[in-house]
């Protein structure tokens, strides 16, 4: 089995790479900075320097990984960019990077994966979105809007690729206890409700991909809280989410 993970040099992507290597799969990962990789895992672990915002870059990495057989079983896009702009300012550069990585990068990964799987009448594609993306309200952050777009893009590709035997799984997690999340919050995760540890997240994600789930939202408590909030009138939801963002930023420098 061949598995390729975009954004697999750190965080949940790297944890998924370890998971599939333990199952005996051949795993390729890519990222913009290979120095992030903590260690060389095995001969079946193939790292590539690539940027999901450049379709030629990501395509070349996948082609180098699969070789002339072009046989790819699972493709997971874990690449993403985050900057909060609800209760604070966001720079043009931060906004551009989020739009490029979370939207264009998602499309580039889908295009690369479908071409690699074309003709094999099988394959599983997964993309990491966010639980915030299941909510639709006027004043949501740019990050939330990009992640909502990721879920919708996945839905479009799922419909298009189903006749070819290729499944698409969108993953909408809540807070996962990764090094990146701790870095963004000065190692203080006290304001992150329903926190999921990395091992649990990996098991949930890999199982959802194997079962060809369309959309997996976890943890359950976060899922139902967000779904309940989405039933509120838009003006009230705007107020609640803005105050939540302010509260979460109170301790930020």
UniProtKB/TrEMBL annotation:
Gene3D superfamilies: NAD(P)-binding Rossmann-like Domain (3.40.50.720)
One of the protein's GO biological processes: phosphatidic acid biosynthetic process
Keywords annotated in UniProt: Oxidoreductase
Gene Ontology cellular component annotations, sorted alphabetically: lipid droplet
Keyword Transmembrane: no
InterPro entries in the record: NAD(P)-bd_dom_sf, SDR_fam
Listed SUPFAM superfamilies: NAD(P)-binding Rossmann-fold domains (SSF51735)
Pfam family, one: adh_short
One term of GO molecular function: triacylglycerol lipase activity
Taxonomy, superkingdom: Bacteria
Sequence similarity: Belongs to the short-chain dehydrogenases/reductases (SDR) family.
The protein's name: Short-subunit dehydrogenase
Species whose genome carries this gene: Chryseobacterium shigense
Lineage: Bacteria, Pseudomonadati, Bacteroidota, Flavobacteriia, Flavobacteriales
């Amino acid at each position: 089995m061949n598995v390729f993970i975009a954004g697999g040099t750190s965080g949940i992507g790297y944890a998924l790479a370890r998971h599939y290597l333990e199952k005996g799969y051949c795993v390729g990962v890519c990222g913009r900075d290979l120095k992030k990789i903590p260690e060389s895992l095995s001969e079946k672990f193939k790292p590539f320097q690539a940027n999901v915002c450049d379709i030629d870059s990501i395509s070349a990495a996948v082609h180098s990984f699969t070789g002339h057989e072009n046989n790819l079983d699972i493709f997971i896009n874990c690449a993403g960019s985050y900057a909060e702009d609800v209760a604070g300012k966001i720079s043009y550069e931060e906004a551009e990077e989020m739009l490029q990585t979370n939207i264009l990068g998602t499309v580039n990964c889908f295009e690369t994966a479908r071409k690699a799987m074309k003709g094999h009448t099988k394959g599983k594609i997964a993309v990491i979105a966010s639980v915030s993306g299941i909510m639709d309200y006027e004043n949501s952050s740019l990050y939330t809007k990009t992640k909502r777009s990721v879920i919708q893009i996945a839905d479009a590709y799922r419909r298009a690729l189903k006749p070819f035997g290729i499944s698409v799984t969108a993953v909408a997690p809540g807070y996962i206890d990764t090094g990146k999340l701790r870095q963004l919050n000065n190692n203080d995760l006290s304001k992150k409700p329903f926190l999921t540890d990395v091992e649990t997240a990996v098991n949930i994600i890999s199982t959802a991909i194997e079962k060809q789930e369309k959309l997996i939202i976890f943890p359950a408590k976060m899922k139902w809280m967000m779904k309940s909030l989405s039933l509120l009138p838009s003006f009230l939801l705007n107020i609640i989410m803005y105050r939540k963002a302010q509260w979460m930023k109170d301790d930020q420098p």
